[in-house]
Amino acid sequence: MPTTGVPSTLGVLLAGGLARRMGGGDKPMRTIGGRTILERVIARLSPQCSGLILNANGDPARFAEFGLQVVADDVPGFPGPLAGILAALDWAAANRPEIEWVLSAAGDCPFLPRDLVARLHDARARENAQLAVAASGQQSHPVIGLWRVALRNELRHALVVEDLRKIDRWTARYPLATVTWPAEPLDPFFNANTVEDISEAERLAALDEAS
Ligand SMILES: Nc1nc2c(ncn2[C@@H]2O[C@H](COP(=O)(O)OP(=O)(O)OP(=O)(O)O)[C@@H](O)[C@H]2O)c(=O)[nH]1
């Protein structure tokens, strides 16, 4: 069950990229400490969200074991994570009209915070912001954020008509709250981009399990 007092929020796990630095394939299907990254992300986010969907392109059957609705990009050509966020906002508007907020998280982040959704909502409500994104240490992680379903047509225009690609450029148009988590001893937004990152993730998994 999501935290009491936090608005109903649909979670989208972004797995729609090409994973070129990993040599292709699905990064969330990589295993860390005997569990897929996707399994870890689902376990971390399902208690915080009112439902989860998976944004991925290609044959959805490869994710069947996870039992999530798979939503593909509607904008072709792999234009980046904003396409996945847009697909999720459109899906929420069509299928979960009671939901006003979508939380996006990269599907290659195995150690996401347990208070991610609550803190993002708290900050954007306190600061009267339209959007909220996560940061750790000095680094912001705009792919991990809270998005208003009502902004989906503006996002579509930015992506399709203006050819805007960078999340930062889009979020700069709105009042934005940024919430920072400590990066030590474990950065909760560590993500696995390369095969070497998987080895580092194995080491961090032990710290995560101890936390
Ligand atoms: N839906 C969608 N998601 C994307 C796209 N490109 C990247 N992402 C997602 O955005 C997040 C950050 O992506 P990156 O790590 O920068 O890109 P990537 O394709 O996963 O990996 P590289 O090709 O190695 O850069 C990941 O969750 C990706 O799955 C895209 O074109 N569409």
Q: Any idea how many domains?
A: 1
Shape type: globular
Which strand order spans the largest sheet, edge to edge or round the barrel? 5-4-1-6-8-7-9
The ligands found in this model are: guanosine-5'-triphosphate
* Average predicted confidence as pLDDT: 95
Radius of gyration, in Å, reads: 16 Å
Structural class: alpha/beta
CATH homologous superfamily placement: Spore Coat Polysaccharide Biosynthesis Protein SpsA, Chain A
Name of the CATH class? Alpha Beta
SSE ordering: EEEHEEHEHEEHHEH
Number of helices: 6
Q: Which residue ranges are poorly predicted, with pLDDT under 50 across at least 5 consecutive positions?
A: none
- Could you tell me the strand content as a percent range? 15-25%
| Strand count | 9
End-to-end Cα distance, whole Å, is 21 Å
Sheet of most strands? 7 strands, mixed
* CATH architecture descriptor text: Alpha-Beta Complex
Helical residues, percent: 25-40%
Write the CATH fold name.
Answer: Spore Coat Polysaccharide Biosynthesis Protein SpsA, Chain A
Binding site for GTP: 14-16, 27, 55, 73, 108
Catalytic activity: Mo-molybdopterin + GTP + H(+) = Mo-molybdopterin guanine dinucleotide + diphosphate
GO molecular function: nucleotidyltransferase activity
Cofactor: Mg(2+)
